[in-house]
């Protein structure tokens, strides 16, 4: 999967994709993430990408011209499945949305800043808007990093044990069961006996029961989806 991220702050996104699972995904050639500096598509010597809004009001708006040039340049090189704009107005990111996006080949992610982008960008270039939650960030970059992380680990072959994504919280609208590792006992706090029993059938049943119980207690909203 190829992800091209259009941003005015490429430095902010240097690190998130260079660690752990996403780093491995890139090394295996399963994920390619490119950072594109929108200012490279500005037409003046000051590399301006934003301007005052028509009608007055505080806050700058990202201009359509550099964004159009940038997206058209990318589209001249390959086809894209989606042009995603990170925005608090968008569809809320959840595991289902991440699953769907992980099946795509090429996507563009556009990060907004200031007051956001000129509305015509959304009308004519953007195919999907995604929000990571009901709060406003100062830019789309951190939201884009979260989207790429959530999607990248779902790309087939990225996780060593493919089944491990299947047991993630939310994959079946249930949150994950509790997990334990050594030691068996710490300050008198014991690992549940069932997990030490070696009986995989019983362990699976226990985990499922724990997931159900936890979901009922902590996230009942997931059970009614
Ligand atoms: N940009 C600003 N706030 C955002 C949010 N909540 N989700 C996605 N992009 C954003």
Short description:
This protein is 33% helix and 19% strand.
Domains counted in the coordinates: how many? 2
Measured between the Cα atoms of the first and last residue, the distance is 29 Å
The largest sheet has its strands arranged as 2-1-6-5-7
Sheet with the most strands, sense and barrel status: 5 strands, parallel
Helix content: 25-40%
Give the C-level CATH assignment of the largest domain.
Alpha Beta
Distinct small-molecule ligands in the complex: adenine
Number of helices: 8
Secondary structure category:
alpha/beta
Low-confidence stretches: none
Succession of helices and strands: EHEEEHEHEHEHHEEHH
Taking all Cα atoms into account, the compactness measure Rg is 22 Å
Mean pLDDT: 95
Strand content: 15-25%
Q: Look at the structure and name the CATH superfamily of the largest domain.
A: SPOUT methyltransferase, trefoil knot domain
* Strands, count: 9
Per CATH, the architecture of the largest domain is 3-Layer(aba) Sandwich
**CATH fold-level name of the largest domain:** Alpha/beta knot
Per the principal axes of the C-alpha atoms, what is the gross shape?
A: elongated
